[in-house]
Write a structure and sequence with these properties.
With 358 residues, the chain is an alpha/beta fold. The protein has 2 domains: 65 residues, Orthogonal Bundle (DNA polymerase, domain 1), CATH 1.10.150.530; 278 residues, TIM Barrel, CATH 3.20.20. The protein is built from 11 helices and 14 strands. The strands form 3 sheets. Strands 3-4-5-6-9-10-11-12-13-14 form a 10-stranded mixed β-sheet, with helices on one face. The protein has a two-stranded parallel sheet with strand order 1-2. Helix 9 packs parallel to helix 10. The radius of gyration is 22 Å and the shape is globular. The protein binds S-adenosyl-L-homocysteine. The site of S-adenosyl-L-homocysteine has 18 residues, from strand 10 and strand 12.
């Protein structure tokens, strides 16, 4: 019987894995490091650009391994702050978006971890059509590589806060972190990497046990289970009490302070009582609170809290020695909330596409 062997995704392989695979193909060990550095440090986009490995090996690689590259479909740059949103096309035609932000302390890229999302948070545009599929480690990495090449600038911080629930794609996430922080790759420090989750409790424990030095951000958004359930379906599965225990475990295991993300929704979660509840949760964990004025999406009727309410909320936290920042809305003039660029693209595609989608 004919075997149709799938070509391995070379950009998702660790250096030891690549070394082993090349040795099996009869190649010298040192080749693996050369090839790995071409991909992950010099960020080349084809075997042909690996000029010191020879044509024969280039052909052999082509035959045995596929080379993942993302194509830029669209780029929008904010006139306000230079923030850029990229829409990428994957090999199977799916699209994902990423954001490039310039800060005083360096450039930051926000990447997607899945095509769509199945978590169903009520205020989020990324989840409206559900989950299409997980992203591979190379597809997560290449969002950063492609942006770095396109801007010609170094990326020093990465946040996994775009479309998708990273903990729902756990194994690929961990491999992505390994590759991103590898000394033979971009070598981004674990401390400059933040992973944001809606709170998959067992995965928080699993991540804690790996004892990485990354920042874990928990999307809390409400301080009672009742209210959280109205905003986030995941709250039906795990209570805030269970979540706080998992966060305490993470802090204990890694020594890294947790960040709570709290999207302020006008008249929903921005009262004095909400602030008091948040202080009660954040203080014992020494958690940092990141307040995000909700970015309204047209499919839902959530509105932003008033400026006065946002300031009062932050001041309440700070008076009680809870460290809080209000996330400045970068690139407000370019398709607001996460997932909206992709959605707009899909909607336009549907309009121009005469054949009905199944
Ligand atoms: N699934 C992960 C990461 C992606 S979302 C998570 O839930 O954390 C990144 C952050 O943006 C989360 O805190 C999410 O709740 C928040 N978010 C999503 N849509 C938003 C919106 N319209 N306005 C404000 N924050 C939003």
């Amino acid at each position: 019987m004919m075997q149709t062997e799938e070509r391995k995704d070379i950009k998702s392989m660790t250096l030891p894995e690549l070394t082993e695979a090349l040795e099996e193909l009869g190649e010298k060990k040192f080749r693996a490091k050369q090839i790995y550095q071409w991909m992950h440090q010099k960020l080349v986009r084809s075997y042909a650009e690996m000029t010191n490995i020879g044509g024969t090996l280039q052909h052999k690689l082509e035959e045995h391994f596929k080379f993942t590259n993302l194509n830029i479909l669209r780029m929008q740059e904010s006139k306000m702050d230079g923030t850029r949103k990229y829409l990428f096309e994957l090999e199977d035609g799916e699209v994902v978006e990423s954001v490039f932000m310039r800060y005083k302390h360096g450039n930051s890229v926000c990447i997607s971890s899945q095509v769509g999302c199945r978590m169903g948070c009520r205020f989020c545009a990324s989840t409206l059509d559900g989950l299409a599929r997980n992203l591979t480690p190379s597809e997560m990495l290449d969002q950063i590589y492609a942006i770095s090449l396109h801007t010609g600038e170094r990326v020093s911080n990465v946040v996994v806060m775009g479309t998708g629930e990273p903990m729902d794609n756990f194994d690929n996430l961990i491999r992505f972190i390994q590759l991103l922080t590898d000394e033979n790759g971009l070598h981004i420090s674990q401390r400059n990497l933040t992973v944001s989750t809606c709170g998959l409790v067992p995965k928080i424990y699993e991540l804690a046990d790996l004892q990485l030095q990354i920042t874990l951000a928990l999307s809390l958004h409400a301080v009672t289970d009742e209210k959280r359930r109205t905003l986030m379906p995941i709250a039906n599965q795990y209570s805030i009490d269970e979540l706080m225990k998992a966060c305490a475990y993470y802090f204990e295991k890694t020594g890294r302070r947790i960040t709570f993300e709290y999207s302020l929704v006008g008249g929903v979660n921005d009262t004095k009582e909400d602030a008091a509840g948040l202080i009660g949760l954040a203080a014992p964990l020494h958690a940092h609170v990141n307040l995000i004025p909700v970015n309204p999406i047209k499919e839902r009727d959530f509105v932003q809290s008033e400026e006065r309410a946002i300031t009062a909320f932050r001041e309440r936290l700070e008076k009680n020695r809870v460290n809080a920042t209000v996330r400045r809305e970068m690139g407000r003039d370019i398709d607001g909330a996460c997932g909206q660029l992709r959605r707009r693209h899909m909607e336009n595609k549907d309009e121009t596409n005469a054949s009905p989608c199944p």
